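Lab manual, section 2.4: Encoding a predicted structure.

Procedure: take the sequence of the chain (108 residues), apply the prediction step described in section 2.3, and record the output as structure tokens. A sample record is shown.
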Amino acid sequence: MEVTGKITKILDKVTGQKKDGSGTWEKQTFVLETQEQYNNLYAFEVFGAEKVGKLNQYNRVGDTVKVDFNVSTNEYNGKYYTSLQAWKIFKANLEETPVEAASADLPF
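Recorded output:
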């Protein structure tokens, strides 16, 4: 799936111990807001040190980005948890239409 919007928050990184005790894991959540009237707020997770590093290196609050993601649902003790797992984040190419560009040059 894919969505385009503006990053409104980047939450703190979360770390933990792997179940088998072989090391640690890390993930980070960021919030994206789209221009849609309804259902316009998304909280995405990136998982793994490399992806967390790239999120923080190349993206800032206020950036408009396009996010490719998967929806994942897990069951734990009879409860279900759904997450949006971002696997590709890139700057959105939001080009102005000729009408918008022309009106931006008019003095008002």
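Check your result against the sample. DSSP finds two helices and six strands in the chain.
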